[in-house]
């Protein structure tokens, strides 16, 4: 029972790390999958397989190599020199992406709660600082609460859409997009999110001693991400193409289900952003702590201050600038993870 609970904790942490602002609003799913019509179900299946395979592989490599941070993993994948350069580039982009997360939290407070933008930023930063004092345990426990609620909301989206007149539209919708664009989309999406997730999955892989727990945690986590992708795609397809006009497409669906679901949905958007932000700040703190002889709390505060400064540019502005730049790096990184001869390393490691 203890091992089963641990597996679920890792799976929930994996899901909570991948699910961020873009996923919660539905924009990521709409742009990467739903707009491609009937092919989206197949590409979601492909993306799910990549999440199961590469997410699990990442944690097991971290476990077997003793990688404490994503810098150690990158040195294993690319060699010492190239790995260091990729790590610093990844750090810069992680700071940029988490600035987007922080800006997204501020936008939730403005658009849905009628509060000031800075209130959302400051509450997120203060909450993150307090939680990180408890280390990886706090991240595992937090996701064990938030992610089951997200999965329940996904089930509610499915059950409410079944009776919709356009429920079967997910298998009949057509697209004018080029096939290359359709099939490249799940690769970009999975690679992008796996690069972000390494900041959390590597420390988890290093600190969990049981390989089977890690393996099954990765498998169930990847399946959980795929289920949530499919649920959101199913719900949004039923309202295509009209739903494409909304900046927060999933919000338009939640609002149709009454004020109670709407309130839960708004809370979950913030919590999804918050859990991802906490986990990424933790990973970046570990990485920088290998180079800076200062207290981890000071590193955490410095990173959050930088994210706070960048978040002043706003959610949509940061999103449009940083995400396309990150896409090309993500594909290159994921390709190296795929080709890594991890089995050969394990064999050599056992013989030492």
UniProtKB/TrEMBL annotation:
<protein>
    <recommendedName>
        <fullName>Transporter</fullName>
    </recommendedName>
</protein>
<feature type="transmembrane region" description="Helical">
    <location>
        <begin position="321"/>
        <end position="339"/>
    </location>
</feature>
<feature type="transmembrane region" description="Helical">
    <location>
        <begin position="256"/>
        <end position="282"/>
    </location>
</feature>
<feature type="transmembrane region" description="Helical">
    <location>
        <begin position="36"/>
        <end position="54"/>
    </location>
</feature>
<feature type="transmembrane region" description="Helical">
    <location>
        <begin position="144"/>
        <end position="163"/>
    </location>
</feature>
<keyword id="KW-0472">Membrane</keyword>
<dbReference type="InterPro" id="IPR038728">
    <property type="entry name" value="YkvI-like"/>
</dbReference>
<feature type="transmembrane region" description="Helical">
    <location>
        <begin position="216"/>
        <end position="236"/>
    </location>
</feature>
<feature type="transmembrane region" description="Helical">
    <location>
        <begin position="183"/>
        <end position="204"/>
    </location>
</feature>
<keyword id="KW-1133">Transmembrane helix</keyword>
<feature type="transmembrane region" description="Helical">
    <location>
        <begin position="115"/>
        <end position="132"/>
    </location>
</feature>
<keyword id="KW-0812">Transmembrane</keyword>
<feature type="transmembrane region" description="Helical">
    <location>
        <begin position="85"/>
        <end position="109"/>
    </location>
</feature>
